[in-house]
């Protein structure tokens, strides 16, 4: 349940939006400041902490020897999970992942998979033995737009993922090789509030948005889309947002690349 | 997406494996009010998909903390029967896929149903996929729409849903299971036909902006037919009884 304070903040944000302004002074289609730190968890095969304004997401990547899926014996496995940690927001509670965490994980998973960022066939070791790559999204602080923050963090973490050496049926984590990636996928999340559409919504903006859409893409193609909440978009709006997403993703790719 | 083994040739001489044109729907048939206990229900066959949807309520939302004092809440459960797939026995229970589909389906109807009429109440939507052949979430939404309307719950619109996808560079409508498994993109969409607003949009694979627009045109054209079938299903029971009544005159 939203508190009175939350309600006041929400109506403040809506009032601003009527005049086309935002609580932090950004224009409607700008990202907040993004900082990316790679390799923050040296024990993990790959990791990155991303701050998107006050939203903070940590992604850790582990690689383990596993058996392949029955229907894909020559491919490794990729598993994306997301945790909305109780320390990240007063609205998050301990317990198994709820539908919001599941949606977040699956949307990030779809973009990475659709982009073929990881060639799953390259994770094959020998018969009945493949690598499983576990991407765990840990939300440390919530202030809106977990989708884009998680995409950036997951891709940045994959970018610095080193796979241990496997020899004589043993894992040697001191000898590693860089995980090979095919390109970079990023996402742009838009929120609709007071009839206007904004990029990279803050927590206050998300509390009053009627609809949300996340568009992920690389240089040439849309790779995944996900609309959320009960509001709607028109086809024209979506076509415009796809163009914005292609434009903005250049910035994001440059940021992650460094 | 996600098919294993050798990719079959999905398009031969401008026709799809089942002989359909790129923008052609599979046969669709809907029947309303098929379940006695539910407030509203629908049975749908779409290609080889067989789907049951049922609606219960409005009734007091329980547990109490789920109540909204301003409007009704929708609770939605999409579920695939363990025997529904041509592959092996499916895992029972709600997996992550089913939880996500239940969420996006609920969000479609939160826009379409006049929730303000029933504060503190819940409306339950159950979607059971009895047999699956690609596009089950859009089949479920299309069926649930009819189930809701047949229960008499007031609605702003009667949403329909259908998916488009891409094989090579060709955009195709209403993917079946084989096409879904080996396509280069898949995009399920739900539309409120009165305004043509998009209520559900998911996509994965690879699409250009132009292909997105073409897909949306396919969807809106197909929507005329899907909407007509939904309305036919809703009015059919009354037409037969009206015919009987008139026969007695």
How would you sum up this structure, described in words?
The complex is a heterodimer of chains A (258) and B (249). The relative contact order of chain A is 0.18. Chain A has 5 helices and 12 strands. Chain A has helices at residues 4-18, 99-114, 146-159, 203-208, 235-257, and strands at residues 34-38, 46-52, 55-66, 77-84, 124-126, 129-141, 162-167, 170-178, 186-193, 196-199, 211-217, 222-228. In chain A, a hairpin with a 4-residue loop joins strand 11 and strand 12. With 249 residues, chain B is an alpha+beta fold. Chain B is built from 4 helices and 11 strands. In chain B, the strands form 3 sheets. Chain B has a 5-stranded mixed β-sheet. Chain B has a 4-stranded antiparallel β-sheet with strand order 9-8-10-11. In chain B, a hairpin with a 2-residue loop joins strand 4 and strand 5 (49-60). In chain B, helix 1 (96-112) packs across helix 2. Chain B starts with 10 loop residues before the first strand and ends with a helix. The A-B interface holds A 71-72, 99, 102-103, 105-106, 110-111, 113-114, 213, 220-235, 238-239, 242-243, 246 and B 1, 4, 87, 96-97, 99-100, 102-104, 107, 110-111, 185, 187, 192, 195-209, 212-213, 216, 220.
List the helices and strands and how they pair.
The complex is a heterodimer of chains A (258) and B (249).
Chain A: H1 4-18, E1 34-38, E2 46-52, E3 55-66, E4 77-84, H2 99-114, E5 124-126, E6 129-141, H3 146-159, E7 162-167, E8 170-178, E9 186-193, E10 196-199, H4 203-208, E11 211-217, E12 222-228, H5 235-257
Parallel strand pairs in A: 4-6
Antiparallel strand pairs in A: 1-2, 2-3, 3-6, 5-6, 7-8, 9-10, 9-11, 11-12
Helix pairs in contact in A: 2-3
Chain B: E1 11-12, E2 15-16, E3 28-32, E4 40-46, E5 49-60, E6 73-80, H1 96-112, E7 121-131, H2 136-150, E8 160-167, E9 170-173, H3 177-182, E10 185-192, E11 197-207, H4 209-248
Parallel strand pairs in B: 6-7
Antiparallel strand pairs in B: 1-2, 3-4, 4-5, 5-7, 8-9, 8-10, 10-11
């Amino acid at each position: 349940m939203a508190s009175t304070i939350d309600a006041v903040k929400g109506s403040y944000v809506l009032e601003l939006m009527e005049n086309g302004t935002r609580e932090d002074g950004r224009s409607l289609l700008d990202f907040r400041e993004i900082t990316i730190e790679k390799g923050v968890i040296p024990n993990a095969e790959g990791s990155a902490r991303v701050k998107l304004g006050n939203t903070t997401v940590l992604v850790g990547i582990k690689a383990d020897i596993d058996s392949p899926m029955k229907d894909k014996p020559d491919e490794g496995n990729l598993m994306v999970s997301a945790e909305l940690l109780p320390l990240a927001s007063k609205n998050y509670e301990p317990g198994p992942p709820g539908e919001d965490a599941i949606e977040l994980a699956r949307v990030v998973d779809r973009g990475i998979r659709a982009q073929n960022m990881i060639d799953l066939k390259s994770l094959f070791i020998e018969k009945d033995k493949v690598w499983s790559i576990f991407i765990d999204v840990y939300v440390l602080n919530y202030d809106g737009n977990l989708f884009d923050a998680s995409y950036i963090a997951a891709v940045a973490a994959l970018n610095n993922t080193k796979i241990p050496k496997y020899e004589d049926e043993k894992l040697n984590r001191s000898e590693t090789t860089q995980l090979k990636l095919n390109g970079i996928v990023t996402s742009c999340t838009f929120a609709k509030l007071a009839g206007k559409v904004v990029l990279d919504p803050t927590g206050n903006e998300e509390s009053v948005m009627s609809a949300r859409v996340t568009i992920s893409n690389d240089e040439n193609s849309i790779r995944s889309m996900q609309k959320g909440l009960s509001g709607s978009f028109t086809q024209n709006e979506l076509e415009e947002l796809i163009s914005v997403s292609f434009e903005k993703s250049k910035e994001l790719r440059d940021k992650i690349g460094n | 997406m996600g098919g294993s083994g050798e990719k079959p040739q999905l398009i031969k001489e401008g026709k799809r494996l089942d002989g359909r044109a790129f923008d052609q729907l599979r046969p669709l048939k809907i029947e309303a009010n098929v379940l006695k206990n539910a407030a509203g229900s629908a049975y749908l066959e779409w290609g080889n998909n067989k789907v049951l949807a049922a609606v219960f309520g409005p009734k007091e939302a329980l547990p109490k903390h789920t109540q909204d004092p301003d409007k009704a809440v929708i609770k939605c459960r999409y579920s695939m029967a363990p025997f529904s797939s041509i592959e092996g026995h499916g895992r029972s229970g709600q997996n992550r896929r089913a939880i996500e589909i239940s969420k996006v389906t609920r969000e479609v109807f939160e826009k379409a149903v006049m929730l303000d009429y029933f504060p503190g109440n819940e409306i339950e939507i159950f979607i059971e996929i009895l047999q699956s052949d690609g596009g089950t979430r859009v089949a479920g939404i299309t069926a649930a729409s009819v189930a809701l309307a047949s229960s008499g719950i007031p609605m702003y619109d009667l949403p329909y849903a259908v998916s488009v996808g891409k094989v090579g560079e060709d955009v195709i409508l209403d993917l079946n299971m084989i096409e879904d498994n080996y396509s280069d993109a898949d995009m399920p969409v739900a539309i409120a036909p009165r305004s043509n607003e998009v209520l559900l949009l998911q996509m994965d694979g690879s699409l250009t902006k132009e292909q997105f627009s073409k897909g949306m045109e396919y969807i809106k054209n197909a929507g005329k037919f899907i909407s007509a079938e939904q309305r036919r299903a809703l009015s059919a029971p009354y037409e037969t009884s009206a015919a009987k009544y008139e026969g007695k005159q």
